[in-house]
Design goal:
Layout lengths: L1 H9 L6 H21 L7 H28 L17
């Protein structure tokens, strides 16, 4: 699994850091919004949990890319200052 993840990250197209930050923040907001919507009885909570799981996978991949970029460019802010989400290892 880790080998596949590393391969998929290496094959990701290069994007500028500003776009990467925007994507991280947008995914975080989407997760927060889905968690809010999942509280209502008129929606299928399982659907929102599945969507959030997919968003969290993407967020973790992008966070890895951002942290790699930050290691090469110390001018970038720490990811903790950009998003509140707690990243998995």
């Amino acid at each position: 699994m880790i080998k596949k993840l590393k391969s998929s990250i290496k094959n990701m197209p290069t994007i500028e850091n500003g776009s990467l930050i925007l994507c991280l923040q947008a995914l975080e907001k989407a997760i927060e919004y889905n968690e809010y919507l999942a509280q209502f009885e008129t929606v299928d909570k399982d659907d929102y949990e599945e969507i959030n799981y997919q968003y969290e996978l993407a967020l973790n991949k992008l966070a890895k890319v951002y942290n790699d970029e930050r290691a090469a460019n110390s001018n970038l802010l720490p990811i903790e200052k950009l998003v509140k989400y707690r990243f998995g290892s």
